[in-house]
Amino acid sequence: MVRFVLDPEGRVVPDLEGRLPGRGMWLSADADVLERAVKRGAFARAARRTVHVPPDLRARIEDGLTRRIRDLIGFARRGRQAVCGRETVLEWLRSGRAGLLVEASDGSAAERARLVGNREVPVVAPLPAAVLGAVFGRDHAVHVAVAPGRLSGAIAAEAKRLAGFGRPAGA
């Protein structure tokens, strides 16, 4: 689900963290649902007033979710709960330390399948290799392992929301 609020000028603003003040309007994290809501005037009906829906609302949601995923992976890295690089990730997978595998969306599906093997670890692929690499101070990173816990759960949830808007969430 994605929460929306109105700013003081009556513009619809996505509240991805769920912390902005005001009465929230909720929609499923799905591009088709958003499109239908905009066409049918659902925001104006829910707010009981005239509202302005920005034409780039979907792009704002995608950018915001991408930023949130990148930030959450950064938090995990700084807390030593995330590593990148094929060999390090493989070591974490073998030892059972990986609670989530974050793969580059532009990475090879065949390589991803070889890395995961028969392991029962959730896999998401929300960001390109250049963005994942920037989190770790590298040019690119294709494989990232995140330790089990709240951060891995939050990353998986945000990746699922992003997938609803057309970007891949899992392999």
Automatic annotation (TrEMBL):
Domain YlxR, chain residue ranges per copy: 1-62
Pfam families: YlxR
Record InterPro entries: Ribosomal_eL30-like_sf, YlxR, YlxR-like_sf, YlxR_dom
UniProt xrefs under Gene3D superfamilies: 3.30.1330.30, YlxR-like
Protein name (Swiss-Prot/TrEMBL): YlxR domain-containing protein
Species in which this protein is naturally found: Craurococcus roseus
